[in-house]
Design a protein that fits this description.
The complex is a heterodimer of chains A (about 270) and B (about 280). With about 270 residues, chain A is an alpha/beta fold. Chain A contains nine helices and ten strands. In chain B, the strands form two sheets. Chain B has a six-stranded mixed beta sheet with strand order 7-8-9-4-10-11, sandwiched between helices.
């Protein structure tokens, strides 16, 4: 089943065409990485989906047509995290920031408490709850913004370059957590990024270039054509690049994304 | 330009109960005319450390020597303008430093601030835009309407325009696509090699940093825990993981080959060199 259906989306901004008859369906429960070079319209797409850009679009999200009447319902199921968390913070403390959306829908105090302690345990931000979100570091802010989006338990999570400031080990942890969330809680995750290294954690890869979808593949088959990525100004993940080059020299036959497997194949 | 920290401490909110000590007893010296990288887990005080260099923050204890200037925690620092003329900083989010309607005005105002002669201003703007790879068309654009890569270039241009000796970059590769990232890498190399600038980069983009850095400083729990040549630093895989840092993929690969197959293929900066090594050793 498709949780997001975009039909014939056409949108231009100041005479610049951003989408021209874009058709895109996103499967329920998938973990998809959406990539494309700067200015390809990734963030515009998120803004359209969340109703931040007005217009008459033929888009269906979780069986609801995207329209002014439905936008409130849609936003309940759609958790969005943007790149610069400063722009979305409104509360004085991290805890208030996380509970804001729950208080807004009138959830009772007991349940709010339970949810906050659950999410802050899972994302390991217990020690930050009493601080002002503005006093945190970039990476911490991004995790808080993620917590604020996940606390209302949305069906769809959209990340717009929202984990770009995390350091290596933390990033691994968070992506493993997202993978688990996707597997166990069946949350649909759409990760928008330019860092294709992140795509390895997902199930599918979608590339947009020059107003068009140029690639929509399962991750295991996504990196067979290096040229597409060059045209999109995107760097292949390290293992995909290594495989591509080794393939050229006849040292391996396929794209191998797992480093252990690669070492074992090269040195049998 | 010499940059040296002498027993430096820094705490936020020193005077009230929310005091938060971020840096403790920092003693480092950045290499002149080289690319210095600072890494560490998010929230460990990397940005605080560099903000001390151009006196956006003043240390709560200790001394910082920046060229001829001495920033002393005990005294009010008088030469802020002169210092910032030599040490220029590009912030994490470039849009936060733009406040003019056009690219031209954005650059002009900095020169006026630093008392440049009017007849030199135009030429200087022309030169600096060329240096970062933006053409003359951009002069009348609104800075906030540029793409991420272009914003970053403009932010660097506005730092370079006063011809500083030291350039500090806070997370410069965030939000850049691979072409913009490669442009940035080239620009940083040129700044080092041709213009002999001292460059300090704070980043968690380890793979990019590995391509360009000479020296690496690792910050953890208020202290510098590792420092030195990048290969020396990245050798300590387990220790770095403890500090929240993963090693560059290209180093991880060499380590894995050594660990699993006991074959030493060496550390490389460039993937093409790694391929040559694999070709040689895997046959």
């Amino acid at each position: 089943m498709d949780i997001i259906k975009i039909n014939n989306l056409t949108y231009s901004y100041k005479n610049k065409t951003i989408f021209n008859n874009l058709n895109l369906n996103i499967k329920e429960k998938t973990f998809i990485t959406l990539a494309g070079s700067c200015g390809c319209g990734k963030t515009t797409l998120v803004k359209i989906l969340t109703g931040l850009i007005d217009g008459n679009f033929n888009i269906e999200i979780d069986k609801l047509k995207l329209s002014k009447e439905n936008i409130k319902e849609i936003r309940k199921e759609l958790g969005v995290v943007f790149e610069n968390p400063d722009n979305s913070f409104i509360a004085e403390t991290v805890e208030d920031e996380i509970t804001f959306s729950l208080e807004n829908i009138g959830m009772n105090k007991e349940e709010i408490k339970k949810r906050v302690s659950k999410i802050s345990n899972e994302l390991k931000i217990n020690h930050l709850l009493e601080f002002s979100p503005y006093s945190l570091s970039g990476g911490e802010k991004q995790i808080v913004a993620l917590a604020a989006a996940l606390v209302s338990e949305p069906k769809i999570l959209v990340l717009d370059e929202s984990l770009s400031m995390l350091d290596g080990v933390k990033k691994e942890e968070i992506f493993k957590y997202l993978k688990k969330l996707n597997r166990e809680q069946k949350i649909t995750i759409i990760n928008i990024t330019q860092d294709l290294e992140e795509s390895i954690y997902g199930k599918e890869l979608l590339l947009i270039n020059n107003n068009n979808i140029v690639l929509y593949e399962k991750i295991s088959n996504a990196f067979n054509n290096e040229k597409i990525f060059k045209e999109c100004n995107l760097e292949l993940p390290f293992m995909a690049l290594l495989s591509t080059k080794l393939k050229y020299y006849g040292l391996v036959d396929d794209i191998i994304l797992d480093m252990d497997k690669m070492v074992n194949i090269l040195w049998k | 330009m010499e940059i040296k920290f002498n027993n430096v401490d820094y705490s936020y909110n020193k005077i009230n109960y929310l005091e938060k000590e971020v840096l403790k007893n920092i003693n480092i010296e950045f290499l002149e005319g080289k690319i210095n990288g600072i890494i560490g887990r998010s929230g460990c005080g990397k940005t605080t450390l560099i903000e001390l260099v151009n006196n956006l923050l003043t240390p709560t204890k200790g001394l910082i020597k920046v060229g001829e200037y001495i920033i002393d925690s005990k005294k009010k620092f008088e030469n802020i303008n002169e210092l910032r003329f030599d040490v220029s900083m590009v912030f994490q989010f470039p849009e936060e430093q733009f406040f003019n309607p056009t690219v031209k005005k954005e650059l002009e105002i900095i020169l006026k601030l630093f008392d440049y002669k009017l007849d030199q201003i135009e030429k200087r703007i022309f030169d600096v835009l060329k240096m970062v790879g933006l053409n003359q068309e951009y002069l009348n654009y609104n800075p906030l309407k540029l793409s991420n890569g272009e914003k970053r270039k403009l932010a660097i241009a506005s730092s370079l325009i006063i011809n500083p000796k030291v350039l500090i970059l806070d997370e410069p590769t965030i939000g850049l696509d691979s072409k913009s990232k490669n442009d940035l890498i080239k620009l940083i190399r040129i700044l080092k090699n041709r213009y002999n600038k001292t460059i300090i980069i704070v980043t968690h983009d380890i793979d990019t940093l590995h391509k360009i850095a000479d020296n690496i400083y690792v910050l953890n729990d208020k202290k510098i825990v590792l420092q030195g040549n990048k290969y020396e630093v990245f050798k300590n895989v387990k220790e770095l993981r403890k500090y929240g840092i993963t090693v560059p993929k290209i180093i991880e690969f060499s380590n894995k080959v050594l660990l699993k197959k006991n074959i030493k293929i060496g550390y490389r900066d460039d993937i093409n060199d790694l391929i040559k090594d694999i070709y040689r050793y895997a046959k």
